[in-house]
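forwarding from the other thread:

> can someone predict this with adenosine-5'-triphosphate?

sure thing
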Amino acid sequence: RASVGPKYLTGLNPEQRDAVETLDGPVLVLAGAGTGKTRVLTTRIAHILSQGRARPAEILSVTFTNKAAREMKHRLGQMLGQAVEGMPWLGTFHSIGGRILRTHAELAQLKSNFTVLDTDDQVRLLKQLLQADNIDDKRWPARMLAGLIDGWKNRGLTPSQVPPGEAAVFANGKGGKLYASYQERLKILNAADFGDLLLEDIRIFREHPDILRQYQQRFKFILVDEYQDTNVAQYLWLRLLSQAPSKPAAQAAIPERVEDSNPDSPSESDNTHRPEMTERAAIAAASAGPTKNICCVGDDDQSIYGWRGAEVDNILRFDHDFPGAKVIRLERNYRSTGHILAAASHLIAHNEGRLGKTLRTEDQDGEKVTVTGSWDSEEEARGIGEEIEQIQRQGEKLNEVAILVRASYQMREFEDRFVTLGLPYRVIGGPRFYERAEIRDALAYLRVINSPADDLAFERIVNVPKRGLGDATVQMLHDHARKRRIPLFEAARAVVETDELKPKARGSLRDVVTQFDRWRAQREVTAHTDLAQIVLDESGYTEMWQKDRSADAAGRLENLKELVRSMEEFENLQGFLEHISLVMDRDSGADEDAVSLMTLHSAKGLEFDNVFLPGWEEGLFPSQRTLDEQGRAGLEEERRLGHVGLTRARRRAKIYFATNRRIHGTWSTTIPSRFLDELPAANVEITESKGGSAWGGTGGYGASRFDDMEAFGSTYSTPGWQRAQANRNRGQANGQGRNGGGGRGGFEEEASNFSSTSSSGP
Ligand code: ATP
Ligand code: MG
């Protein structure tokens, strides 16, 4: 191989270069975070194109998010020195699977314009099926069934393939039957859910070898990023596409089990229900031709989607599944400084089920990973806000700052803090808190109370929940308002005194006017938080979501609670709404220099100079739910999530925990995450919160050893607010704002065990 080559190859290390240039046969790049796996994939595409081995439309390249696909295209353009046009098969499993399904929709009893259902729709549909079958939705929630069906689809199982034992867990054995009727309903509605986008492809490929062959011929190269997070269905799909096309006569339909619900397909005679592993073997046997040029990259230590059916097994079995595979390991991490890498490696070393690999950096040690304790989550947000401002003052870009949370409800506190500080931010992977539909609705109610002339707000909620006040009514109110130059609300007040509206609509509208008048009167005598709760309840808005059975209704109700809670921080309704208008006003332009806020799960593959990791507390992280549901395996997955979080950082990684956190409105006392205990002391520095404290000081934590967590737990058993009060009193009595932690037991004694920078005052 020539040592000089095209420009895009320069700078790659020998192993990376090997992975780029080995174009023929299966290749697995199994390597840790930041070793250049994604960069290798992108360079490999550039290499294929510039060597003329394939045209853009002949390369199938799977990324984990749409954003990652755009990014890859952009980098590709930079490498080749020209924009890359026409890479139609560069995208996520869903987008590519959907594209294939649309082309052959009629083979799945769909039309090519079929709708893709979201979780909402999916649950609503299942609810109808349960009703039709007289199954009690309370005892057997539609959402649970949706989860089961998704799980089966992730494992590549059609209704007839679901093992009877598993189908039995729902509604006394009706699970499998319901899955079948659900599939039937989807066809009637000309709809598919996300799982179908791959499952139907797989079915079409198996039933129609000629079609499969077309795709096998088309895709000269297949590349997959984040292979450790593929599920069985994705694996089967890849496996089918990655076989070299056989001669037409030699390839018979791959035997499969056919859904009972499908009258057009021949039904198989034997009734053995094969779980997905036999399925896998069947496909392997039937498609035992030579494997084509498939290159997968991944890291078993970053497998974080087990709860969604990902099988880390896929990566462990690669050389078995793709015989003759070349496995390439990359060991040099180009992303993080020494301390960060050491901390991340040490943490993940506590997992048992792993292949184990070396990661080294030639970078400097850099700054130690910091761990900071705060009194509560508010102080945590304040402290992080201050640190970010400091980073900004040093001339660094906000684009290089990320906050990675375990649970999305943690975001609200940061969003509020940033607005107060005037720090631009963006939320990756979801809407910002105050932009969520239910929050906007609730705010609209409050705005109309605050200002009867707020026409936009009035129009938004006049018929939410539904009151029979449709577009015609609103149009009429508009006419009226325009003519008399009055707000919509006043127009409504006038109109209900006339007979311009039908009696029913008039009655509804009158109720709305009366309600708002009443709430406005109440405002004078009721705390604004109470008023908000009253308005949400009396308007029927809360009930609307309580009755809604869609998957995210519960989340919306939680958000509404969080909204009411967030109002506590303001003196009155006016102050709160002013704050909100500032939040909403913020320009969220994509090019803006802004802090990124996201969950650890959405942070996969990304990197930032500065990474903040708040909420490292037992119960939140590791998540209690994961521990309850998955035990040891769940704990290991949470630990991998921590590893992913730390390895996102280039230069600074900062971990936080709070002693008190309000979860869904209730204060809980928390103890530091066991993961803190698993960090290597040599690479970690305990620092104090810069957030200023209502608590007697964070010095106690700074001085403490995390491996004494049991003691932590038992020392802090009084409710948070009581302790807050006690500490405040103590602080005053002692005449000191900090280090007044009489309730912290024997932690001060251990001060010498940890290097602690305890100089910064509140
Ligand atoms: P993750 O597992 O987190 O997805 P990864 O293995 O995909 O990480 P990349 O994102 O491809 O790693 O690379 C990490 C960083 O290192 C990127 O900024 C990339 O540009 C840089 N990098 C990779 N290889 C080299 C190299 N040979 N020389 C210089 N920088 C490199
Ligand atoms: Mg990557």
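The CA atoms of residues 123 and 147 lie 9 Å apart. thats all i got for now
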